[in-house]
Amino acid sequence: MLAFVTTTHAQATRHADAPPLLLGVAWYPEQWPEAQWDHDLTLMQAAHVHLVRIGEFAWSRMEPREGVYDFGWMDRAIAAAARHHIVVVLGTPTAAPPAWLTQKYPDTLRVSEDGVRDEHGNRQQFSFASTRYRRFAHDIAEQMAKRFGHNPDVVGWQLDNEYAADSFDPDAKAQFHAWLQHRYGGIDALNRRWATAYWSQTYDNFEQIPVRADHENPALLLDWKRFVTDTWRSYSINQIDAIHPHADPRQFITTNTMGWFDGFDAYTVHQVLDIAAWDDYVDAGEDYDWVDNAARHDLARGYKRRNFWVMETQPGSVNWHATNVTLRKGVVRDMAWQAVGHGADAVEYWQWRAAPNGQEEYHGTLLGADGTPVPVYREIQQVGADFAKAGAVLAGTTPHAEVAVINDFDGRWAINFQRHAANFDPVAELKAFYRPLRAQAQVVDVVSVHASLDGYKLVIAPALNVLTDAEAAQLKAYVEQGGHLVLGPRSGMKNADNGLQPQGQPGPLASVLGGRVAQFYALDKTVPVVGAAEQGSAKIWAEQLQVESPQTQVVLHYGKSNGWLDDQPAVLTRQLGKGSITYVGAWLDDGLLDRLTASWLQEADVHAPLPGAPQDVEVCVRGDARHQVVILINHAAAARRVSLPSTMWPVLAKGAASNEVSLEPNGVAVLDSREVAANR
Amino acid sequence: MLAFVTTTHAQATRHADAPPLLLGVAWYPEQWPEAQWDHDLTLMQAAHVHLVRIGEFAWSRMEPREGVYDFGWMDRAIAAAARHHIVVVLGTPTAAPPAWLTQKYPDTLRVSEDGVRDEHGNRQQFSFASTRYRRFAHDIAEQMAKRFGHNPDVVGWQLDNEYAADSFDPDAKAQFHAWLQHRYGGIDALNRRWATAYWSQTYDNFEQIPVRADHENPALLLDWKRFVTDTWRSYSINQIDAIHPHADPRQFITTNTMGWFDGFDAYTVHQVLDIAAWDDYVDAGEDYDWVDNAARHDLARGYKRRNFWVMETQPGSVNWHATNVTLRKGVVRDMAWQAVGHGADAVEYWQWRAAPNGQEEYHGTLLGADGTPVPVYREIQQVGADFAKAGAVLAGTTPHAEVAVINDFDGRWAINFQRHAANFDPVAELKAFYRPLRAQAQVVDVVSVHASLDGYKLVIAPALNVLTDAEAAQLKAYVEQGGHLVLGPRSGMKNADNGLQPQGQPGPLASVLGGRVAQFYALDKTVPVVGAAEQGSAKIWAEQLQVESPQTQVVLHYGKSNGWLDDQPAVLTRQLGKGSITYVGAWLDDGLLDRLTASWLQEADVHAPLPGAPQDVEVCVRGDARHQVVILINHAAAARRVSLPSTMWPVLAKGAASNEVSLEPNGVAVLDSREVAANR
Amino acid sequence: MLAFVTTTHAQATRHADAPPLLLGVAWYPEQWPEAQWDHDLTLMQAAHVHLVRIGEFAWSRMEPREGVYDFGWMDRAIAAAARHHIVVVLGTPTAAPPAWLTQKYPDTLRVSEDGVRDEHGNRQQFSFASTRYRRFAHDIAEQMAKRFGHNPDVVGWQLDNEYAADSFDPDAKAQFHAWLQHRYGGIDALNRRWATAYWSQTYDNFEQIPVRADHENPALLLDWKRFVTDTWRSYSINQIDAIHPHADPRQFITTNTMGWFDGFDAYTVHQVLDIAAWDDYVDAGEDYDWVDNAARHDLARGYKRRNFWVMETQPGSVNWHATNVTLRKGVVRDMAWQAVGHGADAVEYWQWRAAPNGQEEYHGTLLGADGTPVPVYREIQQVGADFAKAGAVLAGTTPHAEVAVINDFDGRWAINFQRHAANFDPVAELKAFYRPLRAQAQVVDVVSVHASLDGYKLVIAPALNVLTDAEAAQLKAYVEQGGHLVLGPRSGMKNADNGLQPQGQPGPLASVLGGRVAQFYALDKTVPVVGAAEQGSAKIWAEQLQVESPQTQVVLHYGKSNGWLDDQPAVLTRQLGKGSITYVGAWLDDGLLDRLTASWLQEADVHAPLPGAPQDVEVCVRGDARHQVVILINHAAAARRVSLPSTMWPVLAKGAASNEVSLEPNGVAVLDSREVAANR
Questions:
Q1: If I label B531, which of A462, A549, B507, C360 is the partner at 20 to 30 A Cα–Cα?
Q2: Domain Glycoside hydrolase family 42 N-terminal, which positions (chains A, B, C) (predicted)?
Q3: Average pLDDT of chain B to the nearest whole number
Q4: Does a structural domain hold residue B29?
């Protein structure tokens, strides 16, 4: 069998039936009489569905009583799917324990920060730290692996579902104290680094430390997030250890994460997973913020720095917004192609068919509860037909970027604990930098500050609020080796303990920059920002910068505002050999940031693959100089024409090679630099 | 003695002194020295007050210590009132237990959904399910009945006060589990009907079922509301059983409900009560939404399908809004006449005199705490004088409607559990249909889906979200027998268990309609709706309809919007013999709904009693062809003239019979089709 | 040694080094290595800082283990400060107990109204009523006093920090019950005065009374606030009793209060303190509401009716707003001079240097965490230089007012418990009266209703909602002795038990006024108010007044509005000998109140010290006819010229005496009626 899941995932092997680009759905056979399964699978097959995810909420059916297992129905469901050329991802069902489990062992239930134990009736009611719960989770995962680890139609595993809810139960508290003890060694070190002399917080021992996620010392808050991260990591390992010994190596293991969700550091958790997979849900509306969604795909690709899966996405609408407006006709397909354009090898819709009852009755589906297709079924069927055409062309390709934006959980947490300016949303600020970069460079990576930066010509760290010495050293080395580094406002303000950098902002990079922050200002109105031939403004946040080296240049300064900022530097830059470091001390307006980005790209010698493409046409490129596939998505309400850098072959449409493409509203084009066999 | 309370209430008997239209007040003699009583009663008499409600918050005075009763003060209060020609409704005091009771028996205290036990100091602090509390409630009601059951000046009983607060105490939880067991027989049936395979909710036994009113399986949520309903019903029976053996049959038993309040199914609770009585409080402002209030009166009349009482209403203002604006001069009288116009036989103001202290010091009254009349006293005195003039004319009359709007608690609950579109308030949607109907048909009933629909030419079910097979069968029969049925959006979506109808919406009526809902859409902007000669729009909600029978006609369809709805049917109708069924798939704009309503009324051959009356003059009609009394209320800020269908005699004003009436702003006219003796 | 702290504080003695006008900062030596202290103190000295407050959050450092004390570091810190000519206020550290204390004695922890025990990690986590906590608080205060009570560099004591948080622990509950028993004698008296017959609240004993601060009988709510007040008073005495025996009488004792904060009656708590001191923080923005802040200074001066300290104020910005905008350049100095203009003898900035970690890292400071001055340092240094120049001139002076505004906690509480009109904020209403008074009279006192009113020509009681017979008698006597009294709306409505006055509003003053309130109206729109030559409006609240004496005149009446108010009296006045009483029944618009104020001042023969000064220039006067110091602060964005009543000498600026002054934007001038030595 040949690899198909992702070309970069060595263990994954191609299933005889499965195409390289997979259309999938979430299927809950346990909710329906077996006699209806074939009806559903036939309709899946007609829509070119080749993948189902099953099992992730079926613990009660798999283990109806403690230690009594029933997997026969799953055997039959997998076999039935296979008959329709559909492969399976199995979910471990630990996001929703059975009633018997939590009734008998209430200590496995999650406890909220306010001390309230959760109860049965919803999901995620378990404690992620409970030793007893992990034993049960290990056992059910192991039983599943023993049964399905060699099933040829099972291609991978999803652990649990959408890790999210912290717990403050006694297990979690004791583990947090032990975690702190391990991190700090002794209580004196903790007292010193947390500066507990403040407010007489001084601790005599680790047990005295309150376990909370809010209104505490910023050092404690940051460590709590790190502890939560490590706990989800070990929670994953617990199940991986149960599955690995019994499963073929071709079966990958992942979990499904949630966009910008910051409940844990996704880079750390992904260390123990084979591939990244995420659930792509967008804000309510007939349209979606496609640049935001593009960034989220790039974020997911950055977790493992290779192609990823969209494990869930919406067939038009969801049920958990206040008002669940459905995506306009055509936008579901547009989103599917955006995912692929950014490196997805599978796109899976949640869910296949409306459940007959339960909290999610109103969620979008492909089939109604009555088993008949709803209107969006046809549009997704079109996606399936597209994937069938384009799969071979895209096999083995992935996006390659020359520029990267740094996403850092420590910094996002630290700012969110202490916004200081209510509108300083660190994700919004990241996207303020991402937006012009995507428009001008077209292919962008979003990576951790710990990722290797080799090969990037330009790296932007939007608000790298927490900056450790090691991280600063890596960034310094990047610049010294010719890289171009741009730091956004609030960067380098905090040390590893979320304390203020003793050197002043940007901390260990101040000497590299040859400048520093004299004072920061939260803004409730805009402040003018000017340069030699430049006029713009800052909002939300402005830092008064100070030049401390003759080699450091003032790129922009503030106009007249609150007296303090008047005529003070707003943006500094310094050349270091072939590299450079730039510090942007304010949240600049979009136009200004757009023009600055152009100057940074020029300086770093970065060129867009399709220069001059219209702003509202998304350009995605997979592959490299040898073999390039361009995916164009028209997000405009009107038709658009796009010039190609060279003659390319259409993949979805019939037609001859051309150096220009026309796109209808919400139109998609896939173009191959090599001649496409099917179009000959 | 002759019946006076309501002509349709056989047991109620006329008190020698009491007029057929009663002006009343809530009086708290226990708050004042007995020496002051006569001062107050004299002022009541001067205002034509003939009714007081007493006792409903006086448990501490009636039973100062466990088992020790003191009713002497009530004997004297009732006798004192009688000397001023005032009859009495007695409230059982169970809405506010004494401190000694809840101190000694804390298990009788209410427990909130979050598990917090209520405490003394406010009211409604009891558990409605507590077995022990019911014993105390039974005993105090029985003691009262023994003392006052044959008192000729006591005309009826009010149980408790404004039933409202659920409890989640252990008694309530055990009873809910038993209730579920009784409903479903075995746990397997519950698992199947609740579809608990979803999220692994499967229960092994009834005790595992969480007892909550929020964030649970929709089936559980709906059953909780039904359990709450049955619990208030049995709570009522407990006291009725204590009163009946000791009370004259002429003494009616009721409780006072609260407009649109949906804490329980009021139809079920009213099964065990003699008459309906409600507390008519309006939103803060100088004016009130009189159409909303008209609908609430019609709702109350529909509980027992006969005349009702307004047990409380505001003498200008209340104290529980954020800003308690007082009704403009004249509006209090206007409201009193609206109540009568819709079938009230008594209008009682809360409260007579400002309490010297306590949470409601600021509430509107007729007398200040100092015992002197406040300005609104004169206006209410005018109401008393009106009632004295009109009582004889209105005796024995009630409104008679040819059209009905269905109010269904199951459906309202189901939608509120899962709004999907935040602004889809089912009461607002009901009123969207009620408003044009009231304007065009003038006399409208609001009834339960279980009420007999015989005699209605047109029935509108605004959002009959939950539709059981039995209900569907009754509606189908109504249409087949020549009735005209209009279903609003979201109708027939859910089955009795709040699960999705397996046939697709509108479920068991889809085959009758010859059409169905292909997909629903929550809207955040309007969508055009067009017909042959019609232009309008939909907001909040739009369903894409689908014709499935050649006899089914498209009345309206959508214009260009989100792609999915473009050119799709929005309103379908089908003739079945002399009857018809119409399905309105969207929340239409008011103008469109007004024109559609006209077409429905025309088709159903319904004619307004006073065609052509100005929109801002409310037309109420009591009586039938033999003897008709018309009540006109001018809600406009300017004078209005109204043409009468025939010559009628003025009842309040001196004057000759005429076929036209002039109304000042907030003016009221009562007109009799028979010559009025007093005006001769 | 000579007195310096305040000239009116007999015990306070001048420290050899300390100037009469003190610039200070909050310093936390415990947060820094001792080796860094001198660096900081040198920078303080350079900024003319002569005062530090230390110790108030250092309990863990003072008493690292139960009963083990370490004061050596404080000895050294005080000595180091003294070497830089800096005196010390010591804070007792009881606002933040050590971890060992609350871990071992969890009963000392605060319990919230919802029954949740607080925990370590923040501050104010103690129960203010805990007997055990008070023992610890006494001991640490006593140990400090023994150590520092005779230290010549320690000038005073601050008890705890910002008293604020009530506790509902068992100690507090038992004490409240005992407090009620003491107040009412027996339960029958309480039942009568609280009118507990209402809602069957009747109590059999004091233990049944719920202990809550919300949603209870208004009588209970008011008594709870009084109990809280008495508890903070005894909390203070507990520490005073520990300090006094061991401290020099020259060392004053105070605590730092918070502006309009109404958690307790500050007049009662100040009875046991030597001087008033408050923390002056303003709303977020580049500017501040200087009239509000002026009123807050006058409020603080009124606590002891002599000069006060600003114990904390912001060096530009704080960290606890949603968006912490920094004051515009120049405004920090402006605020410092406003404080002095209203009677401050010390202005202290919080805090000196950014803490290396902790919840307040982002708060404004003079030094960054890195030990270098931030921009505002220079501006505060200027304040220090100013103080050095002006200290001698201002020594011994204080403002003298002819007019007073009454601030009454009972009334503010009572209204806030029952706003009735959501926007009726009693502080906003007080300021509506204060604003024109300050503009026209320029020097204004804000005092308790229990203060002696001798010497005031005009007294305004904005919303004296609770009015006891004794208070009414004092106000009556004031009028009879020639005083001019103005009562605002809602005055005299409630008695001492927060019950409605049995005589009707304004209760015991109705007979003095010769008029009363017939009915009150909460407003959601404005109502016209007219007089002989007057046109204006009322908002939020309007009372329909009624004349009951031929000597009572209608000053203003309402125009056409809701029918009830049309043409009814809005403002009444009555002359009584040389005095007068005026009742303003509505919240009048600013213009109207401005003109009314002019008429009141004219009638009372009050004249502004600097008539005709521009509205946006604040005029402050310290001293009396013999020696007057005028402080002018230009709050305008443009320059202003101010005419002086006579030739005066500039104190801050070099220059000759003049009868006119020019002020730059945010400019400050200090002018002396006597020739200034330094300028000669």
A1: B507
A2: 27-388
A3: 95
A4: yes
Question: Mean pLDDT, chain A, as a whole number?
Answer: 95
Q: Which CATH number belongs to the domain containing residue B660 in this structure? A: 2.60.40.1180
Share of residues in chain A with pLDDT > 90 (%): 95
- Give the domain range for residue A674: 617-679
pTM for the full predicted model: 0.96
| pLDDT tens digits, B315-357 | 999 999 999 999 999 999 999 999 999 999 999 999 999 999 9
> Which residues in B lie closer than 8 A to residue C211 (C-beta atoms)?
none
Which amino acid type is present at position B300? A
What's the pLDDT at C508? Answer: 97
User: Which of C210, C418, C502 is the closest to B119 by Cβ?
Assistant: C210
Nearest-5° Cα angle at C529, C524 to C531? 175
Q: Kindly state whether residues A496 and A544 are assigned to the same domain.
A: yes
Residue C639: exposure state from Cβ atoms within 10 A (0-12, 13-18, ≥19):
exposed
Task: Give me the pLDDT at residue C675, please.
Answer: 84
DSSP secondary structure code for residue C500 in this structure = B
pLDDT-flagged residues of chain C (< 50): 1-14, 680
Measure Cα distances from A103 to A107, B180, B209 in Å.
9, 19, 10
Question: Cα B354 to the chain's mean position, in Å?
Answer: 27
Cβ-Cβ pairs closer than 8 A, B with C, add up to 153
Among B162, B348, B471, B618, the one annotated catalytic: B162
Beta bridge partners of A536: A529
Q: Are residues B28 and B152 in the same domain?
A: yes
Among A646, A648, A653, CA closest to A679:
A653
Burial B144-177 (b: 16+ CB within 10 A, else e): bbbbbbebebbbbbbbbbbbbbbbbbebbbebbb
- The residue from B312, B379, B471, B543 that is catalytic is B312
Could you read off the pLDDT of B113-155 as tens digits, one per residue? 999 999 999 999 999 999 999 999 999 999 999 999 999 999 9
Peptide bond into B218 cis (omega under 30): no
Q: What is the 3-state secondary structure (H, E, C) of C219-263?
A: HHHHHHHHHHHHHHHHHHHHHHHHHHHHCCCCCEEECEECCCCCC
Residue C502 to chain B, least CA–CA distance (Å): 5
Residues A531 and A668 in one domain: no
Give the number of domains in chain B.
Answer: 3
Q: At A18, is the pLDDT very low, low, confident or very high (cuts 50, 70, 90)?
A: confident
Residues of chain C positioned with their CB less than 8 A from the CB of B365 = none
Residue type, A564: W
Q: Do A370 and B503 touch (CB under 8 A)?
A: yes
Q: How many CB atoms lie within 10 A of CB C191?
A: 17
Q: Which of B100, B328, B357 sits opposite C498 (nearest CB)?
A: B357
Whether residue C312 lies in the annotated active site: yes
Q: Which residues of C touch B285 (CB under 8 A)?
A: 524
pLDDT of residue C5: 33
* Contact yes or no for B120 and C212 at CB 8 A: no
Contact C361 A499 (CB under 8 A): yes
Q: Do B199 and A96 touch (CB under 8 A)?
A: yes
Q: Give tens-digit pLDDT for C229-239.
A: 999 999 999 99
Is the preceding peptide bond at A665 cis, omega within 30 degrees of 0?
no
What is the 8-class DSSP label of residue A554? E
Amino acid at B197: A
A499 and A409 in one domain?
yes
| Rounded alpha-carbon distances, angstroms, from residue A57 to A91, A96, A277, C656 | 8, 6, 18, 87
Q: Is residue A53 part of a domain?
A: no
8 Å CB contact of B198 and A119: no
Distant-in-sequence, close-in-space partners of A680: CB < 8 Å, separation ≥ 6 = none
Q: Tell me the β-bridge partners of B670.
A: B631
Q: How far is CA C503 from the centre of its chain?
A: 33
From the number of C-beta atoms within 10 Å of its C-beta (0-12, 13-18, 19+), residue B53 rates as: buried
